[in-house]
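Open question from group meeting: does this chain pack into something compact, or does most of it stay loose? Before anyone orders reagents, we agreed to write out a predicted structure and look at it together. Recording both the input and the output here so the notebook holds the full record.
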Amino acid sequence: MREDMQYISEVLDELDVIVQDASGVPMRRSLAVVDRTDVLGVLDELRGTLPGELSESESIRRESQAIIAAAQEEAERIVQEAHRRAEEKVEYTEVYARAQRRAGEVIDRAEQYAQEVASGSEVYQDRVMGQLEGWFQDSLLSVAESRQELSGTPARRPEPEEVEAPPEDDEDEERGWRVSSA
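Structure tokens returned:
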């Protein structure tokens, strides 16, 4: 190998001499005219002396890149398979089952509470509307009384039992709902 490197160095020196001895182009110092056959002959010699290992190393490099890429793909597949298996095993553990049951209970309680709140709001709405209706009836009676007094006839208020009271809902008390007057 050392002999090949020395020979390559000698061929490169010969190429250097060809370029140095080349005729210069007038008005252009950096340009020179070289004999093409001399340069091509030296390059052919140089290529012939390059170790075969260089061309082999290029094919080995390409092969190693392909092997590395295949190994990376296989590693990714193995990791994904391991994640899938771990997730499958988690589903069969007691902790997972308890968490699922607990989540179901929480959801059931939340749904029940939502239904109770909705039902309670309907009762509250009904009672508030009943109170408003009573206030409006009182206002209308007051207006009617005022009109009668203005016309000179004495006004008569109906007795409290004549005004309808909203029905009581025993179911609301069982749920613990309390309605306060507004």
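Observations to bring back to the group:
The mean pLDDT is 79.
Helices lie at 2-20, 36-49, 52-91, 94-151, 170-175.
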